[in-house]
Structure formats: structure tokens, C-alpha cells
Amino acid sequence: MVEKERKRRLTTATLNQLVQEAVVFKPPPRTRGGKRGRVYYCTQAAVRPPTFVFFVNDAKLFPETYRRYMEKQLRSSAGFSGTPVRLLWRSRRKMEKDDRRSAATNFAQENYISVDRRLAVA
Hints:
Layout: H1 2-7, H2 12-25, E1 39-46, E2 51-56, H3 64-78, E3 86-91, H4 94-121
Parallel strand pairs: 2-3
Antiparallel strand pairs: 1-2
Helix pairs in contact: 2-3
């Protein structure tokens, strides 16, 4: 029985539905600054042992108690009661955001400079 649980694979859609229900029932706690963790989606990365990756805004916003709560919800809802489960929490990379912003800023600056050159020449 444990071996069947260990080999079980869940679809991302099923996992996301389970995670969404768990988050609605008990949202992540707020920090002192008022920030709250947000789960974007969850997927199963490996089967033996079942490994689930949570893609979140900032992994530091999820305390250990909330991580245990999500593990308990996955175990009870998805039927992984007798097997070890790994949960990985991945933050959205700030560098990706910074790269997007800097690319937009560089584009705007290049266009602004080219407009100034046209005005200076005319």
C-alpha cells in the first residue's frame, strides 16, 4: 500500500485545486510589515519520494507552521498518508523582475535620447 502511494503521480491541475482549497480555508499569515505569502501554483517534480514544488512570491513569508499545514493537507487530500513527502518552496526570482524593468528602462532611455538628438539636429 505504501509502495502504491510512493509511485502515485498527481496532475498539476489536481494539485492546484487542492492547494487553492487549503489556502482559502487557511490563508498564509501576514508578516509584521503586512505582507502575505502567495502561492502561484504547485507541481509534482518527482515520484519516489513524492516531491512537490510550490512556486510562491517569497518563500520567506511562509513560516514552518504553514509549511507543515500544507504538507498535512496534501497527505490527507491526495492520499500520501504512509509515505515521506518532500515540499520545496521556490521564490519568484527578483533578478527576473529587475531584468525586465531594466530592459524597459533602457528602451525608454534610448528612445528619449534619440528624441533629444532629433530636437538638437533640427
